[in-house]
User: Which sequence fits this backbone?
């Protein structure tokens, strides 16, 4: 996928780039696989903001993606579609029973291609198999963490993981972050790299495009008052983190939690599944 550029007719258009939608084969999604996307704008059930900088944005319908394609399915790709809710493309497939599914579109997928799942599926792009049936060294995506739960890992554009080892009960997978993780060998994964790999190179160009995505502006803590943020306050003028009597202290969140290097991981029981940390390469 190439990146589409604009002529600098306005300051916002200067440097702005967007996706080239030449790989999209239809603009009309399947209505039975659409649901209304409810918005909470970062608020909880009490109406209080629990996630900041969310709100607004264009209206969207959510596409029901099948992250757990049943084994024994043989389907044909009918269209490659745009999904406003994710960075990757989605493929509309029709199985042997006449039922439609949406799956993540792998790199190299094309209309008319056959997608299969199960033990006897060939090792080809887009096919879905259990990890125990995938050769070591294969590139995979849309990986399950628990058998039958559906894909949870490696689902964004251009990403892929590698199956590096297999044992009796577990498999070791190298994730895009560099982390090597243990996953049950009965979990399933799809073959290949997720498409739309140029997504990361898109430049928004203007603030309005960020608002269309539902992202509201953020304000630096050092320009706030001391009552609003631990970095705020000071005697006027420019100052570092903290400012005033707090100058030079450890960076903190608006609620006083340390940040920028301070470890906040609490779910220690999952550490047993991490063979190699994603931070290991940075320590060298």
Assistant:
């Amino acid at each position: 996928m190439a990146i589409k550029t604009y002529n600098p007719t306005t300051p916002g258009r200067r440097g702005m780039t967007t996706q080239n939608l030449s790989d999209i084969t239809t603009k009309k999604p399947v209505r039975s696989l659409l649901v209304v996307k409810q918005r909470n704008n970062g608020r909880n059930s009490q109406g209080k903001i629990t996630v900041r900088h969310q709100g607004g944005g264009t209206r969207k319908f959510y596409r029901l993606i099948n992250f757990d394609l049943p084994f024994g399915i043989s389907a044909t790709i009918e269209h490659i579609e745009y999904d406003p809710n994710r960075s990757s493309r989605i493929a509309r497939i029709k199985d042997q029973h006449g039922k439609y599914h949406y799956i993540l579109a792998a790199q190299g997928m094309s209309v008319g291609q056959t997608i299969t799942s199960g033990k006897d599926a060939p090792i080809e792009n887009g096919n879905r198999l259990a990890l125990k049936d995938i050769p070591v060294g294969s590139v995979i995506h849309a990986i399950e963490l628990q058998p039958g739960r559906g894909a949870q890992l490696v689902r964004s554009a251009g990403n892929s993981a590698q199956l590096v080892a297999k044992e009796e009960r577990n498999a070791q997978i190298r994730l895009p972050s560099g982390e090597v993780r243990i996953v049950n060998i009965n979990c399933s994964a799809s073959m290949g790299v997720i498409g739309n790999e140029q997504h990361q190179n898109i430049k928004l160009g203007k603030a309005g495009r960020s608002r269309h995505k539902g992202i509201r502006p953020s304000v630096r803590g050092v320009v706030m008052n001391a009552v609003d943020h631990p970095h705020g306050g000071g005697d006027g003028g420019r100052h570092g983190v903290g400012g005033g009597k707090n100058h030079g202290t450890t960076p903190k969140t608006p609620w006083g939690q340390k940040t920028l290097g301070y470890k906040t991981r609490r779910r220690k029981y999952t550490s047993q599944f991490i063979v190699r940390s994603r931070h290991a390469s940075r320590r060298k």
The mean pLDDT is 91. The first helix runs from residue 207 to 212.
